[in-house]
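Section 3.1 - Work completed
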Amino acid sequence: MAKPIIVTWGGVQSTFDHEKLDRAKLYGKRQRQILDPHEQRCERAELSRDGTLLIRSGMTAQGYFDEGNAWIPNGKLVGLDADGKPLPHIPSTLGEPQKLEGPVDPGELLDLAVRSVYTLDPNGLDPKLEGELRGGKVFRFVFCYRGGYDTELAYLVCNGGAYFALVGSPAVSDWCELQTTVADDPGGDDDGDELDFEMF
């Protein structure tokens, strides 16, 4: 079982067991299965470019081949910055207390590119925090599930008596405006600007 999500607010610690919420759990799923002549389920696989390796589903998630066709497992990969220098590894936040920020403006959720949603089962919830969440307040904390080279933001919310963590990154939008407003000239003659479709 995965380690719990632990948060602290006002010096008091709260713990949540968590489970990832996906579309299949909300709506169910159907899967088309391909069977061989013996009614056994077929598994997808593909050949490597040079035709020497048969790659089954899930194998490419375990590592990579370098230019010399040597196998490099994910555990040996390192992150690099724009200058090619190694980035510091960030440990998982699961099982480690994370400080809650807030209450924050609920509008922040509208600017969040949500990657994951977790249903939370309180296991030692601070009564004051519970009251704030049930009152519609939103809290924010740093989240990193497996550990890596980047963190995400998680927002702790309560809806209908159930607790959720919405995890993602802020979506930054660049807004553009006209520097000047073009006004119509009511006294001008627009007849010369009309298109003559016969000229096409």
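Second construct:
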Amino acid sequence: MNAAEIITLVLLAIAAAALLAITAQRRRTARRQRATRRLLDSADVLEARLRTARSEIEAVAGEHIDDPVQEAMREMLRQRLWLREHGEYASVAELEQVRQSIDQARARIETQLGRIERARAPVA
């Protein structure tokens, strides 16, 4: 093997390594973007559900009650602020953890709304 062939092989190896690194980075970026999109979608769904819940609770109990939805709205706002401040550098696992906490909050609201609906149902 002469020097030109060795240089060619080394350059091909460097190009292949660079291509692999670029591909890996793009995959990580795509995974983070998907995780961020899922997190924001979950937050949007929770926010919409909380607004509906607040309306339903006010319809049953009036406007001058302790608002159980308020704390959930504050938590959702904290999550959105966290995402804005740390989302760019957060790991996919951290983004998924935040999304799961939002989904758990939505499940708790659904449980509370189910109780309200049962309480509103006419007794047979």
